[in-house]
Amino acid sequence: MRKILLLPCLFVSQTLIAGESLWTDISPDYQSRSNQITVDSIHTSRKLTLNYESLALQLSESSNTLLEFPMPDGSSLMLRAEPSSIMAPELAAKFPQIKTWRVYDPNNPNVTGSIDIGPNGFHGFIQTADGDRIFIDPDSNNDNSTYTALSHRNSSGNSDTTFSCELHDHSSEFESPFSAAFKPSFSSAEAIERSIGTVADPLITYRIAIAATGEYTQIYGGTKENAMAGINTTISRVNQIFERDLGILLEVVGNNNDIIYTSPNSDPYSNEDATAMVDENVVNTNAIIGVNNYDIGHVFGSGNTGGLAFLNSACGTFKAGGVTGSNSPRNDAFNVDYVAHEIGHQIGASHTFNGFQLNCSGGNRESDTAVEPGSGNSIMGYAGICGSDNLQSNSDAFFHSVSINEIKTFTREGSGSSCGTTTVTTNNSPTVDAGNNHTIPAGTPFALAGSSSDSDGDIVSHSWEQIDTGDVGGLYNDLGNNPLFRMWPPTTEATRFFPRLSDQIDNQTTIGELLPTTTRSLNFVLLARDNNGATNQDTMSISVVNTGENFAVTSQTDETSLSANQTIQVSWDIAATDAAPINCSVVDINLLEDSGNQIALLENTVNDGNQSVTIPNDIFTLDNAKLQVACRNNIFFALSQGKVSVLGGSPVLSVNSPTINEGDNGAQNISFILSLSSDATETMAIDYTITDEATNAVIQRGQAIIIKGDRSAIIHAAVAGDTLSESDQILLLTINKPSNAQFISGEDVLVGEGTIVDDDQIAANPVANTSVVSSENAVASSSGGGSFGIFSMLGLVFLAFTRRTYKGIKS
Length: 811
Description:
Number of domains: 5
Largest sheet: 9 strands, antiparallel
Keywords: Membrane, Signal, Transmembrane, Transmembrane helix
CATH topology of the largest domain: Collagenase (Catalytic Domain)
Radius of gyration: 29 Å
Number of strands: 43
GO molecular function: metallopeptidase activity
Shape: globular
Signal peptide: 1-18
Transmembrane segments: 779-801
Distance between the termini: 21 Å
């Protein structure tokens, strides 16, 4: 039974979960922090020890459990874990110690991943909502107790610059009609413009046979079980990507152990010779596994094997034509940059990079799909192995929209649809709208804003991607037809600034983001993912006109300090944008923060190059903004060269969105933090009410105090743990605006949302007793104090008489 208790009961225990933690920091510097992914997590790693036996026991006791996942910044997430084997049942029975779970954050469905356990220890991976990838891996194969939690953004340098990938054509040697399948049976335009309906494609499961050379197995200790555990970790990782982007799952065949070799001297492979190995794997897999017993085949090797694959080979005569080899087959560079890339070829995807340096040269570029500048950074790009063309060290774990369309065309309409099993789902694809086409001046920043919806209620993530193919190279020059803008990891926002707004604010340039300087067209896709296996996309086009000069703000060239009620002059070069074909007759003048928040100063004014504007009286303090002149009926804008800081009037009051786990016993704090944008100039009294979202019952009512010179106050409510299965509970904190503060929304009421996560096992038709305690006259201060009134006592008496029924949590 979950009870919302009272302020004096808050401090019973704040370490219930920490005290039972499976993970222990090796360094004493880490201490428990908030349960949320922070920006800091992308710059740190964390050394931990794991109670492996307890973890394995916890996972084995339930098919749907909450698991602690330590983050690199010292915080932890509680993730829901569901069994998700990548092995056929008969193979899983041969290796009972190897198990896999898919994981997700029940409070943020965009946080997903996988974990596995086995003789090589625990391996964990999650994709965060902001596009980072977090890994937990053992420090060595022989130690299941010591681990490192690491961010992908912090793990630069994993790229193997000797790695190369080729698309292999064996038609002359095998004298087979299969040669036609080495090239796409559809044009690049079809790959780019493939139409996707509102009903998601069925899920395809391909039977995959993964052979292992003796050298690969030796890296994992020399046993079939350890090598199979390594294969399991890799395919689990690949499946997480394939299912999300492509609606495809890979299942390792039941007799896969027969093609895992333990001795380099007796295996049938020429390790480190990819050209020989791809031939050998076709012959060996057909002979051992059986030509009718698998849909895709691949072999893992070691050393400088690199990657080699037959394009569009799944289901065909040479369906085992795939090789990946590396001296470090245990990290995400191997799993994503290499294995997902090579299997991507086998199911229909071509290269997407447009660079020509190092490995991007030598005929590896595919002109019909070269939509990424330089090395590219999607899975089918060559991130990290193209010298000066590199956009980054490793690929992001996402397919470009062009690759998704190629793969879906091959697997749903081409020869890749002739094998595998399909499962019809009830999931629907999101709807997406990229907006109207526009004409803009050259050399001018712009922003694309789309929209999407999902009838299933899934949280949609978005990626704006350029789809132009043109002349090779041009990473630093607009050649008139080449791709200029790289893709970024998806976000829940459907708006993208070109270039990135943070770079524009800081007057920096990111490689792979180049403003057009010629008269040309730019074509974009807005790709929407529901993160449940369905995608959809819409296109739009921009006509760029070189007017001979740039649309640019010419005032505020240096850093400028402003204050509320101050009037300033803003001037800009209109660059003939008021004339055809651009026809921008009116503009808006704003303050634009690095977060993307716009503060209107003057709207719908003539595009004449000069206006006076007054800073609003109710503006809040800003310290990292710029003046923006934006065409009102278009997508382009210009920013001042110098940053602008503003000394606002009343400080801005905001509230966090806390999340806690309920626990099984004792009391847990849920703490709402009220924060001011600047020090309070006088003591501030803030009236608040906490209600239960589901019932509208008032749980707590009181007044928070922020004393003069302080910036925050904490409002506590306490939750009593229990062992019953319930729905997550949402508490709403409603704040009335005090006279000496303001809300960023401009409204008079601010609502904060707190979440109490149920961490109990899900039972059939669970019924929970939930007690809501009304508390009057509660007072919170900046030091977190409180009072206990007569209404609180009456509420406690009321506990035994209040009941609420919950539905089980969706799994």
